[in-house]
Amino acid sequence: MRLLSRFTGLSSNAAVGGSDSEWAALFSPSVNSKKLGFRRIVTSCRAVVLPRFGGPEVLELRDDASVPDLKPNEVLVRARAVSVNPLDTRMRSGYGRSLFEPLLPIILGRDVSGEVAAVGASVRSLSIGQEVFGALHPTAVRGTYADYAVLSEDELTSKPVSISHVEASAIPFAALTAWRALKSTARISEGQSVLVVGGGGAVGYAAVQLAVATGCHVSTTCGSESIDRLLAAGAEQAIDYTTQDIELVIKRQFDAVLDTIGVPETERVGINLLKRGGHYMTLQGEAASLTDRYGVAIGLPTATAILLKKQIQYRYSHGIEYWWTYMRADAEGLDQIRRLSEVGKLKIPVDKTFPITQVREAHEAKDKRRIPGKVVLEVD
After folding, report:
1. Which domain of life does this protein belong to (predicted)?
2. Cβ partners under 8 Å of residue 139, min gap 6
3. Per residue, what are the HEC states of 127-175?
4. Nearest Cα to Cα of residue 110 among 172, 200, 165, 175
5. What whole-number distance in Å separates Cα of residue 123 and Cα of residue 249?
6. Are strands 321-324 and 217-222 parallel, antiparallel or unpaired?
7. pLDDT of residue 41
8. What is the DSSP string of 53-100?
9. End-to-end Cα, the chain, rounded Å
């Protein structure tokens, strides 16, 4: 609270307790806030910065990361927990360098759970002090590995009171990735059949739960350690891909296949198991890798051509729709994810937490696969 007193000019007593009028003037997005303004309270904060690509050792915890002015639709969140996604470790290693290298240093992180610290002038659905959780778009440059994260209003929703910040931070990015594939692209509905290839990971596990909540018949592939958990989540069939031949074990065809693995063999199997008119969606699209390899001018058109070729090929040979799928902000989807999380129908188990000061250790543990499940950084 000394920081508040120092930046606002409030007395020490006011900074600690503060009258309602003082705090209203301090945080309100009205004319008064333009005079006092959040920028005068927090202009910089701790953040995990990526100055160059490499191993976990390149990550730097700095005390002077700038806190930007909020745009009208943006929200400043005091982070309490942020999860470590596979995208974070891949970006740290150089994935997406064609986009991010000119912008270094950047802040990693996509998921966040915390409290609203300030809101932009047009924000209406969220208020200061409210507990929220959400996720940034994959291409965001200022991520959530920080004391204060900036997200747009439609990237956040109320945190369910029934779960902790640690639990909440593990959910949104993975769940929104699954939501985009199953609900926005395939538009699954009650009674349909869904196959999730790789149900043991965060996106796969979220996809199984979303499909079950929709009323679908769900099958999934996974390692032996995930079978019981996926059956408990409502999957009708969980196949150990290390010991069973998927094509021999599965006796049905599907309306939608979400392939979280995305290698040629899983693509072949997934497409062959689809009904005509079904949707195959892979998380392993080639746009980023081709752009990294050849640059934006050549890589992006090449990726577009490859995708179009596959879409035409499979439409004529199998009568199915083929998609590369990515996470996108979806206010309606996030609200439904919140509702499911609130009643215990959607959760992502957290295997281990680290303080944000041990971010290198957290990344190293994920790189070396010492922790198979979700890792969360606690921000205190």
Report:
1. Eukaryota
2. 96, 99
3. CCCCEEEEECCCCCCECCCECEEEEEHHHEEECCCCCCHHHHHCCHHHH
4. 172
5. 51
6. unpaired
7. 63
8. SSSGGG-EEEEEEE-PPPPTTEEEEEEEEEEE-HHHHHHHHTTTHHHH
9. 14
Cα separation, 216 vs 236, whole angstroms: 10
Q: Are 348 and 175 in contact (CB under 8 A)?
A: yes
Cβ neighbors of 70 (< 8 A, separation 6 or more) are 38, 76, 118, 119, 120, 150
pTM above 0.85, yes or no: yes
Q: What is the DSSP letter of 116?
A: E
Whether residue 150 has pLDDT greater than 60: yes
Handedness of CA 51, 132, 205, 290 (dihedral sign): negative
In our burial notation (b when 16+ CB lie closer than 10 A, e otherwise), range 216-240 reads bbbbbbbeeebbebbeebebebbbe
Those residues whose C-beta lies under 8 Å from the C-beta of residue 319, and which sit 6 or more positions away, are 276, 277
Predicted pLDDT of residue 191 = 98
Give the pLDDT band (50/70/90) at residue 340: very high
Residues 247-252, mean pLDDT to the nearest whole number = 90
- 70-90, pLDDT tens digit by residue? 999 999 999 999 999 999 999
Q: Is-contact 259 269, C-beta < 8 A?
A: no
The two tokens of residue 331 are 């206010």
How many angstroms separate the CA atoms of 351 and 247, rounded? 32
